[in-house]
Amino acid sequence: MQTSNPSQTNREKPIGAANGWIMLLINLAGLVAGAWMLGRSVYLSANTHESLSLSQFFSGLAIVVTAAIWLNGYFTLQPNEARVLILCGAYKGTVRHSRFHWTNPFYTKRSVSLRSRNLNGEKLKVNDKRGNPIEIAAVVVWRVEDTAQASFDVQDFENYVRIQSESAVRHVANSFAYDYGEEQEVTLRGGADEVAGALRLELQERLGRAGVLVEEARLTHLAYAPEIAQAMLRRQQAEAVIAARQKIVHGAVSMVDMALRELAEKEVVKLDDERKASMVSNLLVVLCGESDVTPVVNAGTLYN
After folding, report:
1. Domain boundaries, given as residue ranges, for the chain
2. Is the pTM of this model over 0.85?
3. Please, where are the H alpha helices in 128-217?
4. Could you tell me the pLDDT band of residue 151, with boundaries at 50, 70 and 90?
5. Can you list the alpha helix ranges (DSSP code H) found in the chain?
6. Nearest CA to 110 among 162, 160, 145, 75?
7. CA 103-104-107 angle, 5° bins
8. Which is the CATH superfamily of the domain at 117-224?
9. Is 105 within 8 Å of 27 (Cβ atoms)?
C-alpha cells in the first residue's frame, strides 16, 4: 500500500537579475541590427537582381525574433516588493532589490508584497474560559517574510492569514476568563498586554508555515454577549458597591479609633465603656451614612 508523501516546506532562495537598462540598450541594438540585416538582404536582392542572401536574411530574422522574445524579460520592483521566479513549474528564486530588472524571459514572474498589512478582524461570539458568551475582535499587523512559503506552501496566503487569525482569536478567548479571575489570574479585561502577547505567539505559530511574520496583535473589541450583558452589569455594580462600602467602613473605623485615642491622650474627656460605645455608634452613623445626618443635642446624661 502506497502512502502519499507529506508536502515539503519551501524556503526562499535569493536570485540575481541583470540591470534592465543595460539589457534594454542591448535589446534595442539587436532589434535595429536584425531589422537592418533583413532590409539590406531584401534591398540588394531587389535592386541587383541577385538571388536573396538566405544566410543574411535568416540571421537578421533570428536576431529580431530573439530580441522580441527578450522583451518579455523586463520587470520593475518597488521598495518592499519581491518577484518570485518560476520556470516550468520549478521555483528558481526570489528577487527583492527595487529597480529595473531583466531576467530569463521564460520565467513566470509572481509579484509578492513585503509591506506590513492590517487585518481588522470581525466581531466573534465565543465562550471564555468559564463558559460565559462574549464578543471579541482583534487587529493583526503582519507581513510576508518568506516569499517561497507564502507562494507554494499554502493555497492563498492572504485568505490563510484571515482564517487562521479568526481561529487563533477564538482559542485565546477560550483560554482566559473575561474578568473576575482567581488571585493572580490573567483575564481578558485586566491583562491586555499578556493577552496580546499570547495572541501574537498563537498567531505566529499558525502563520509561520505560510512565511508570514506577525508584528503585532491587539484586541479591539471585548464585551459580554447581549444576552448576559445586563446580568453581568448588575453584578459589576453590586461588586463595586461592596468594594466602596468596605473602604468607607475601613476609613470610618480608623477615624473613630483616632478620635478616641486623641481624646484619651489629651484628656479632653474621660469616657467609660458605655460612653465610648455610644460615641462609636454615633460616629459610624455620621461617617457611613449616605445622607446628611441631623444632630440631636442631649441635655441630660446617658444614665437618666
Report:
1. 18-112, 117-224, 235-288
2. no
3. 147-152, 157-175, 192-207
4. very high
5. 20-47, 54-70, 147-152, 157-175, 192-207, 226-265, 273-288
6. 75
7. 105
8. Band 7 domain (3.30.479.30)
9. no
